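Narrative summary of target 7.
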Amino acid sequence: MPELKSLVLLHSNDMHGDFMSKDRDEQLIGGVSMLSGYVSQVRSQEETVLYAIAGDMLQGSLIDSEYRGISTMEIMNYISPDIVCVGNHEVDYGLPHLLFLEKFAKFPIITANLYIKNQATRLLQPYKLIEIDGLRIMFIGILTESVLDSLRTDKYVGTFVDIKEAAAEVGKICNAYQTTDVDLTVLLTHIGFENDCKLAAMLHPDWGVDVIIGGHSHTVLEQPAVVNNILVAQAGTGTTQIGRFDMMVNKDTNTVESFQWQLVPINSSHCPRDPDIERVIAMYSGELDEKYGRILTHLTRKLTHPRRQQETELGNLFADICWDMLKVDVMMLGSGSIRKTELGPIVTVADLKAIFPFSEPIHQVILTGEQLKRAFGRVLLTENLTNSSEHYQVNKGVEVIFDDASNSLISLKVDGVSVDDNLLYRVGLASFHYNNFDKFLGLSKDEVLKNGRPLVLATSQTDIIEEYFMTHNNLNARIEGRIQRIGE
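Modeled conformation, tokenized:
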């Protein structure tokens, strides 16, 4: 008879500072208090439990951004995950700050492929071998190439951005432990579900990878995918749910003998609250309420931003404000920079900081009409309709029509006039997108710089919006067909 051991493997990803519970249908859902309560409950009920987080604990709440992730690490220390991998938002406050937060954390943070270029020296622990109740489990961290987007100006930092190179790095680590009796090997990744499946297909069976727990694409699954005999799972985004594997591990063959998986809702019907975490959150919230409780403006109604891949009410509002204040021809506002799905009708400083936490500069670049059409044609490609791709909101007067049937741009107008290939247009971009426009817009810096010197129009995008709110009331925005997709 084979020796079988049971294991409960809990997992979260892309929590994004989602600390607070929400009242929905007369029931509390989500929040780190009940999430912690559920994890503690499972740990008390089951013999062998591990809790893993697949990146992006940081960014998305005022509590996180005000304290630059220190508050998040203190809260996560109370939840006490067993293992965490780096996500792209872990570097939002800069690489040195990530290394500081890693020291502050009382749990291991791993990634195998973030390194110093000139010596190929890894910056963090690449893997962790955890022994629990007679099981030896290897976790290896792999992050997304978009971590480099935030570090684009840092020429000393690199990553294995190619999936094949990441697979080779996994093989290198697994081969180093071939003579060690590892019962289960888990990749903790932040590269998106589709790339997780591609990575699984490239892994040699002899490397012994059993499970990939991923993040970044915010994918909600009914059941894990099975690729190359490897289980691939993800748990959406935020704290309203948690993934749970109940598995039997075969210690003789070092494989998963059997498993059950579910996406467990975090709500007050079955998740106890954690009073210790609630006290920590109350402490931070009290300080922020005093500082950021001031009312900025009143919108005519609640405005929404349900999906980053489409034109939204909030996207139109923010793009129009930047366009009006900065006097560019086209404002391309990154959809992903809007971190909440709704705002208003009352808007406080805290609301604005939470929904728009990236207080980054806005640059003006000069593009020819041909380059502008090429950029929109690149952004709107059908294959880019994912949470992992960059999307944009545009100001009024801009009309973009894209044909999904031919996967091509049909029409682009500015102020009701078709864009002329030979004319020059002033385009506003936040610095994250300016530093990466070769990747996001498909334009090389050399060809863009020939059109004129880029300018910094404002050192803080959030400051512009805050000032506008303070001098304008009863603002409204609607979907107007600024970005249209036809031929679906």
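The two ends are 55 Å apart (CA to CA).
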